[in-house]
Design brief:
By secondary structure, this protein is α+β, with helices and mostly antiparallel strands. The protein has one domain (7-73). It has 3 helices and 3 strands, in the order αβαββα. The chain has a 3-stranded mixed sheet. The protein is globular. The model has no long low-confidence stretch (mean pLDDT 92).
């Protein structure tokens, strides 16, 4: 069920991934890591959240959107 925080899956998250659209390729790694940390700290607020089943649990996948950047820029 994409775009919905799932407490069951969230408890089994063993990895987290962030997908950056091409328009952000010129951002520094430092800036990307800062934003990724903020997004994964509150995954329920992410505009595009998904869980990928893995052998050992789930991977949380957040795709960065302008809405997310706006939200974390005030953080």
């Amino acid at each position: 069920m994409p775009n919905a925080l799932d407490p069951y899956r969230e408890a089994l998250v063993v990895e987290h991934h962030t997908i950056w659209p091409n328009e952000y390729e010129d951002w520094s790694q430092k800036d990307k890591h800062r934003v990724e940390a903020l997004l994964h700290a509150s995954p329920g607020e992410a505009a595009e959240l998904d869980y990928v089943r893995q052998h050992t649990g789930f991977a949380r996948v957040i795709t960065v959107t302008p809405v997310d950047l706006e939200r974390v820029s005030v953080a």
